[in-house]
Amino acid sequence: MHIPNALISLLPLGLLAVAVRLPAPSGPYNVGFTQHIFNHSTPNDPTPGPGTSYLTSIFYPTRSSLAPNTSVPYFDPTSAAIWGEVFNILPADLESLETTLQWQAPLLSAKDDVERVKDRPTLVFSPGGGMNAAYFTSLLSDLASQGYTVLALDHPGEAPYLPLPYGNPGVVGWDIYMPYSDALIVEIYQFRRADMLHLLGPSGFPALVETYGAYFNTEAYGAFGHSIGGATATGAMDRNRNIIAGFNIDGGLFGDSVNASMHGRPYFMTMNPNHLAQDADSWPAFATRYYNESKTAPGWLDWTTVEGSAHLAFSDVALWVELLPQIPNTTAQVDLGNVTGTRMDSLLKSYAGAFWEFVRGGEYDGKLLDGEVEEWPEVVFNARVRSNGTQGY
């Protein structure tokens, strides 16, 4: 793990940092948050981590009101130093980011609230490669505020540093600048998929829900992810029919996810304009196969491009760079495109929210899901597949 001395020496300046809050969730509920470490061994784990467990962060709706200065911290000091170097942001400024998450806030208790949310699919999220799930907090919080239970997975040892709850020591992982070979990417996909399938299996989330007597849905799931997390969600869908829909956020398909069959389950894929320069084959082949399957079976697929975006703009990273000051006379070393962080944040929340609302059987927002709209001119539709036919493919 590489933490530059120059950045460490700047940490005392954090006393001057002013708290900056992520965009507020848009739903009717506040957001509770808890974490659980599941025991699950990864054979021949390639990471520096123990290979014996994974961390699940649980976002859920609550009616509890957030008290001042009690939200779940966004950054821990070690991670802030690591990621601050990449984006030329003082660690103290990254630590100043605030969430609206409430640690282990009470579950919904009013009968009307419980009835409204208990049958929504539980959404399972896998982050981009080498990234902590926490760096997608804005989107995950927003979905929870809409009434969904959201599970986000972290594999200890993959990200440069992963803080663990309940007094457990954090886990140091691969260096943030480590290059990824094609073979290693497939290995990452395989242990990510194994973690997700274990989480949805009898000894994972269902057992945890039974232990605590919660109303969370353990019969129907939605799977989604960013980058390699998109492949994780797709591969898990191929092996678990309780996953009723998938959302791939700018993620190429790897390993056996390339040939995953959706059996007509809804699938949304969105990418940056340069995606096909690195992944010329997997998305077009997937969409073609889905289209061919839809001729004889139900089907629903959207494939969009967000013009002006870049790969990391689909995460909270673009918000860090927009909302926080950079170290003077420096620029971010990673391309985030020319769409602002707050606009990308609103855009992704809008489309993800509309998609999951459709999946759960709620109101269908054809304005967003069926083609280009004036509100989001940067969203271009590459393909739409519908049951027993196609529109715009």
Walk me through the structure.
By secondary structure, this protein is α/β, with parallel strands linked by helices. The protein has a single domain (5-391), classed as Alpha/Beta hydrolase fold, catalytic domain (Rossmann fold, 3-Layer(aba) Sandwich), CATH 3.40.50.1820. It is 31% helix and 21% strand. It contains 13 helices and 15 strands. The strands form 2 sheets. Strands 1, 2, 3, 4, 5, 6, 7, 10, 11, 12, 13, 14 and 15 form a 13-stranded mixed beta sheet that branches. Strands 8-9 form a two-stranded antiparallel sheet. The protein is globular and about 55 Å long. Mean pLDDT is 93; it is low at 1-15.
Summary tags:
single chain, 393 residues, alpha/beta, Rossmann fold, 13-stranded mixed beta sheet, two-stranded antiparallel sheet, 13 helices, disordered N terminus
Mean pLDDT: 93
- Report strand %: 15-25%
Count helical runs: 13
Fold-level CATH name = Rossmann fold
SSE pattern:
HEEEEHHEHEHEEEHHEHEEHHEHHHEE
Total tally of structural domains:
1
Low-confidence stretches are 1-15
**What kind of oligomer do you see?**
single chain
**Secondary-structure-derived class:** alpha/beta
Shape: globular
Distance from N terminus to C terminus (CA atoms, Å) equals 45 Å
What's the helical proportion of residues? 25-40%
> For this structure, what is the CATH homologous superfamily?
Alpha/Beta hydrolase fold, catalytic domain
| Strand elements, count | 15
Radius of gyration: 20 Å
Q: Largest sheet at a glance?
A: 13 strands, mixed
User: CATH architecture, please?
Assistant: 3-Layer(aba) Sandwich
Signal peptide: 1-17
EC number: 3.1.1.47
Domain AB hydrolase-1: 123-318
InterPro entries: AB_hydrolase_1 (IPR000073), AB_hydrolase_fold (IPR029058)
